[in-house]
Specification:
The protein has about 425 residues and is an alpha/beta fold. Helices cover about 45% and strands about 15% of the residues. The protein has helices at about 65-70, 75-85, 90-105, 135-145, 155-160, 175-190, 190-195, 215-225, 235, 245-255, 270-275, 285-305, 340-360, 375-380, 385-405, 415-425; strands at about 10-15, 20-25, 35, 45-50, 55-60, 115-120, 125-130, 150, 205, 230, 265, 310-315, 335. The protein has a 5-stranded antiparallel beta sheet. The longest helix has 23 residues, at about 285-305.
Length: about 425
């Protein structure tokens, strides 16, 4: 039986010749945590969020990245020359110059602001706030000069890229997600933790087969705590020169101790970055042991010195990780992320499909046919991971796009048969 819940609810608001489509707007809780929204808004230079007091939209009026632009003037010969010439730090001058260019790049159009909306300047950007999402968005459309419809969708925001994924968007891992929610709650309420003398986990180890969503969970946790994800990769630590690997791991933790914003420090493929050989007979083994030893020392005191940071490590091979590296006190949660069950695969497919529908469907264009049945697809995809299911959907989308591109005629929506064929091709 086809799953009718795949197609999201759409509210259309039109005013002054402009149209706003709010997809699954009823899922947004204004009293909940700050969460990103948006569909084609990022391409218009707009970041839309929801918080306890309503909605806020930041319109970036410049195409420049201010931090990157400022870094052009900071340090090195250019920064030193500017400092000597003008007597101000290069980074400060760079920021001033960038702001000046941003203001001149995109002037603010005249807007008749709805009385329910406030518009204020914040550096080179405009910030628009309102308790009414339609009122705020129609103001944003006037500011950006949007001619056609603008779609706002919390589902699409999560599906459009990993940076926006939330725990709500993770399918088929209820137990793991529930524990991650508890970690996020403890992170957001340090006052309660302090009153009870409680210490939240400072490290989480995720282990399981490839493609089961371990990295995505770390990204979702970062978004749940309103923070950033800082991913540590092998080349950032391991170095062929004697002593450099040890210095690299010390530098990474020194930087982590200086962070003032909530941060998830992710060691992806942990077993290939930090390991332990036991008795070392050569220089390489000694270096590996030294790095592991420094990692253990740093983890012993990280949460006490900076409660803004939580460490997440992922591995496909938990048996390769020495127990002393991930003992309690360093990694307090050790969670298995298994290959999804049939029920979990149906949940994953439902969330993936809803995200694609919310992001891509427009009036007159349907991406998926009404006969799509996620339960049947889950039955036919035994043994596949979430990454495999996402790849099957990508292939079905590509087949339809190529069919339309070759023929020049509109292709019909993706049907159940198309998805079953994509799963079969993936298996073969």
């Amino acid at each position: 039986m086809a799953d009718t819940s795949l197609r999201p609810a759409v509210e259309v608001v039109a005013a002054s010749g402009r149209e706003l489509r709010i997809v699954d707007g009823h899922l947004i809780e204004a009293g909940g945590p700050r969460r990103p929204l948006g569909h084609d808004l990022p391409e218009r230079g707009v970041e839309l969020t929801v918080g306890p007091d309503g909605y806020a939209a930041r319109w970036v009026r410049s195409s420049f990245s201010l931090p990157a632009f400022a870094r052009m003037f900071a340090g090195g010969a250019a920064g030193g020359a500017l400092f000597r010439l003008l007597g101000v730090p290069g980074a400060v001058l760079g920021a001033v110059v960038a702001v000046g260019i941003a203001r001149a790049t995109r002037p603010t159009p005249a807007v008749d602001v709805d009385p329910r909306v406030t518009v204020v300047e914040d550096g080179p950007d405009l910030v628009v706030r309102s308790a009414s999402l339609p009122a705020l968005m129609l103001t944003v459309m006037q500011l950006t000069g949007a001619e056609g419809p603008v779609t706002v969708s919390p589902v699409a925001a999560a599906a459009s890229g990993s940076s926006g994924v939330r725990l709500d968007d993770v399918g088929g891992l209820e137990d793991v997600v529930a524990q991650f929610r508890d970690v996020a709650v403890s992170f957001r309420h340090p006052d309660v933790m302090a009153r009870w003398g409680a210490t939240r986990p400072q490290g989480v180890l995720l282990y399981g087969p490839p493609g089961t969503g371990k990295t995505m969970l770390a990204q979702a946790l970062a978004n749940e705590i309103g923070g950033e994800l800082r991913e540590i990769r092998t080349p950032e630590i391991l170095d062929k020169w004697v002593g450099n690997s040890e210095k690299n791991i010390q530098r990474i933790f020194a930087e982590a101790r200086g962070l003032r914003e909530p941060t998830v420090l992710l060691f992806d493929e942990f077993d290939s970055i930090i390991t332990y050989t036991g008795q070392a007979f050569d220089a390489a083994g000694q270096m590996i042991n030294a790095v592991a030893g420094i990692f253990k020392q740093e983890m012993n005191t990280l949460i006490a010195e900076n409660p803004n940071v939580i460490v997440v490590a992922t591995t496909n091979f938990p048996d390769r990780v020495d127990a002393s590296l991930v003992r309690s006190g360093r990694f307090d949660l050790k969670l298995a992320v298994p290959v999804p069950s049939r029920r979990a695969r149906a949940d994953i497919l439902t969330k993936l499909l809803r995200g694609l529908i919310a992001r891509h469907e427009q009036p007159g264009f349907r991406m998926f046919a009404d006969d799509v049945d996620t339960d049947a697809l889950a039955t036919e995809s035994a043994g596949l991971t979430g990454a495999d299911l996402k790849e099957a959907l990508r292939r079905a989308q590509l087949d339809k796009a190529m069919q339309e591109a070759r023929s020049g005629a509109p292709a019909g929506p993706i049907a159940q048969a198309d998805l079953l064929a994509a799963l079969g091709n993936l298996r073969s």
